[in-house]
Amino acid sequence: MFRKSTDKRVAAFFADGLEECEGLVVCDLLFRSGIPCDKVSITSNRSVTSSHQVTIACDRSIGDADFSFEDYDVLFLPGGMPGTKNLRACERLCDAVVAHARAGRDVAAICAAPSILAELGLLEGRRATSNPGFQDVLAEHGATVLQDPVVEDGNLVTSKGLGTAIELGIALTRRVLGDEAVEALKGKIVYNG
Question: Which positions make up the signal peptide (predicted)?
Answer without folding.
Answer: none
